[in-house]
Specification:
29% of the residues lie in helices and 30% in strands. With 224 residues, it is of the alpha+beta class. The chain has a five-stranded mixed barrel. A two-stranded antiparallel sheet has the order 6-7. A hairpin with a 5-residue loop joins strand 2 and strand 3.
Length: 224
C-alpha cells in the first residue's frame, strides 16, 4: 500500500507537474525517502467529487492555503518516510461548480526548505484512523487541512483529469494485489491440504482402526 500510493503520486507529478516540482519531488518519491497519498473523498459527500468543499485560497506568492477535511486517506500519516506528499483535490475560490472547477495541489507534510529537505511542519494533520475491510497493515486516515500550504499542480480547474492519472495507477496496483493475494491463498490452502491429517472414518475407508491419512491422498468418491 505505501509504495503503491507513492508510485501513483510520482506518476501524477511526472505527468502534470512543473519542471521545478519534478526536480524537487520525483527523485525522493522514487527513492522511497518520501511517500505519497491521494486526498479525494470528503465526509459530507463521500464519493461525489463534484460536491467537494475543500477550498484553495491564493496567497499571492504562488502558494495556496488549503482548508478542508478528507476521509479514507490511505497512508495519510506514518513515520516510514521522511516526508509525506499529499495530492489534494480542492476548489479555488471563484471556480466553477461541479467537477469542472476542481484543481489539484501538492501539500507536503513538511514544507521543503531551500535545500529541498523537510522543513517547517505544514498544517495538515491526521484526526483519526478508519476501519477499511481487509486492509489492516496500512493507516487509513481522516485528514484535516487547516490553511495548509499547497502548490497547484497542472492547470487550474483541471485537477480531476490529472488525479485520474494517479487513480488509474492505483487501479492497476489493486488488481495486482488481488492476483497476489489469491495466489498466496491458493498456495496456503494447497499446502494445508497436503499436510492435514484426515479422520479414519470416511466413505472410502471403512476400517475404524485405520490410522489417519492425509486429505490430499483421499480418492474422489462419487457418492459423496
Amino acid at each position: 500500500m505505501y509504495p503503491g500510493l507513492t508510485h501513483g503520486a510520482y506518476t501524477a507529478i511526472h505527468n502534470g507537474g512543473s519542471d521545478e516540482q519534478k526536480r524537487l519531488y520525483l527523485p525522493k518519491l522514487a527513492s522511497g525517502q518520501w511517500g505519497g497519498t491521494m486526498n479525494l473523498t470528503e465526509p459530507q459527500w463521500r464519493t461525489d467529487l463534484g460536491l467537494i468543499r475543500t477550498k484553495a485560497t491564493p496567497v499571492g506568492d504562488g502558494t495556496y492555503r488549503i482548508s478542508g477535511q478528507k476521509i479514507w486517506i490511505s497512508s495519510g500519516e506514518h513515520d516510514l518516510t521522511e516526508n509525506i506528499i499529499h495530492l489534494v483535490l480542492a476548489r479555488i475560490e471563484g471556480a466553477p461548480g461541479g467537477v469542472r472547477g476542481i484543481s489539484l495541489f501538492i501539500v507536503p507534510k513538511f514544507i521543503p526548505d531551500a535545500k529541498g529537505d523537510p522543513g517547517q511542519r505544514n498544517s495538515v494533520h491526521c484526526l483519526g484512523l478508519e476501519e477499511k475491510m481487509g486492509i489492516h497493515g496500512s493507516a487509513t486516515c481522516v485528514m484535516s487541512h487547516e490553511e495548509a500550504t499547497g502548490w497547484l499542480i497542472g492547470e487550474e480547474n483541471r485537477g480531476l483529469n490529472l488525479m485520474f492519472v494517479m487513480m488509474n495507477e492505483e487501479r492497476l496496483a489493486v488488481g495486482m494485489q488481488g492476483i497476489a493475494q489469491g495466489e498466496a491463498a491458493y498456495q496456503a490452502a494447497a499446502q494445508f491440504a497436503k499436510e492435514r491429517l484426515q479422520a479414519a472414518r470416511s466413505p472410502v475407508r471403512k476400517t475404524p482402526t485405520a490410522p489417519p491419512i492425509r486429505s490430499w491422498s483421499i480418492p474422489t468418491c462419487g457418492a459423496c
